[in-house]
């Protein structure tokens, strides 16, 4: 069961999302995601980036929206 996040923590995660959403369209595309992983986990293999993107993009629209990002962040996948 996922722990409830405080409004403050959600705002912090939203700020992180907005930072990597370089074009400000409310979505993170693959190039933005590559940049995000380069910052969070520099040792991530390039071959895993696209696979990870597809896993996070649960609605398969080619973008990571904030809800998908929040779920990913809560699961701590970015720590690997």
Automatic annotation (TrEMBL):
CDD domains: EFh
Keywords: Metal-binding, Repeat
Pfam families: EF-hand_7
PROSITE patterns: EF_HAND_1 (PS00018), EF_HAND_2 (PS50222)
Chain ranges of the EF-hand domain: 8-43, 44-79
Keyword Zinc: no
Protein known as: EF-hand domain-containing protein
Originating species: Alteromonas ponticola
Organism taxonomic ancestry: Bacteria, Pseudomonadati, Pseudomonadota, Gammaproteobacteria, Alteromonadales
């Amino acid at each position: 069961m996922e722990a409830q996040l405080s409004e403050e923590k959600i705002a912090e995660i939203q700020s992180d999302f907005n930072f990597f959403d370089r074009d400000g369209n409310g979505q993170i595309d693959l190039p933005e995601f590559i940049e995000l992983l380069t910052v969070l986990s520099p040792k991530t293999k390039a071959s895993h980036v696209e696979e990870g993107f597809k896993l996070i993009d649960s609605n398969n629209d080619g973008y990571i929206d904030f809800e998908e990002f929040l779920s990913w962040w809560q699961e701590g996948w970015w720590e690997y």
